Amino acid sequence: MKKLFFILLSIFIVSAANSQKIRLNAYGNYAFDDKVDNSYSYNTEGYFEGTLKGGFLWGGGLEFNLHDYYSIELIYNRLDTHAPVDYWDYNDIINHNKHANLDVGVNYIMIGGVRYMHPNAKVDPYGGFMLGMAIIDTKNPETNISNSATKFAWGARFGTNIWASDRVGIKLQAQFLSVPQGAGGTLYFGTGGAGAGVSTYSTVLQFVLGGGLVFKLGK
Question: Of 3, 53, 54, 194, whose CB count within 10 A is highest?
Answer without folding.
Answer: 194
